[in-house]
């Protein structure tokens, strides 16, 4: 499948084992149209978006989205269909651009809380510990207006022509409760904490190591004190003083969000992410 791929061709997969995968495909298509209207070199990209269920499909992908859904179910189906190892190779050995939303973020975490041992396998790739179902049950789902600095005009993103906050939907969402040092020792220690699982470590491919420096985890978005995010009135300033929760992170090509941008019809994050994918491919494909 990769055989006749031209330089401008990019295949982006969405893991389609369970969850909101078709919504992501729809927004990716929308995002590609927005990019095509932009008169940049990105116009030359020919994007193909595919649902990924098999190792062969994954092998044709340059980048991957792991959608929201139920992380235990996704990991179980991945295990049964022999996809766990190919996914770990994709994310951690080849370090190809990957984005996880909600359950996808949990699977990309190196460590996750509130998970029965043996009940859940992680892929890993982000040196973070997530706390699953942080805000409670399904009925405690909510929407919040987020200021996401990486989308703002000030950071050179003029594709949407607005600095509107992003309406983010949180459904039994995880948060990043801890950034882990980039060493294995810490993770071994995490394994002894009750109800915490960790991802098995994998070494990055030697050739990829020359191009990519894994570095630290970057915090890309914070949900301010929950009441502040919901209210948006005079109390906001005072409540913003609360530390807030980390709900978006990135570490060398791997990106994770606690919320569901695929359920809002707002393609801004998808546009931003496709640009990141394109840049990552430029780095990889140029000699
Ligand atoms: N709570 C779910 C889990 O643990 C994630 C929910 C979601 O993706 N909306 O997998």
From TrEMBL:
Q: Which GO terms describe its molecular function?
A: glutaminase activity; lyase activity
Could you tell me the Gene Ontology terms of the biological process aspect for this record? Answer: pyridoxal phosphate biosynthetic process; pyridoxine metabolic process
| Superkingdom classification of source | Eukaryota
Q: Which reaction does it catalyse?
A: L-glutamine + H2O = L-glutamate + NH4(+)
- Keyword Cell membrane in the entry? The reply is no
Checking NCBIfam families in the record gives:
PLP_synth_Pdx2
Q: What is this protein called?
A: glutaminase
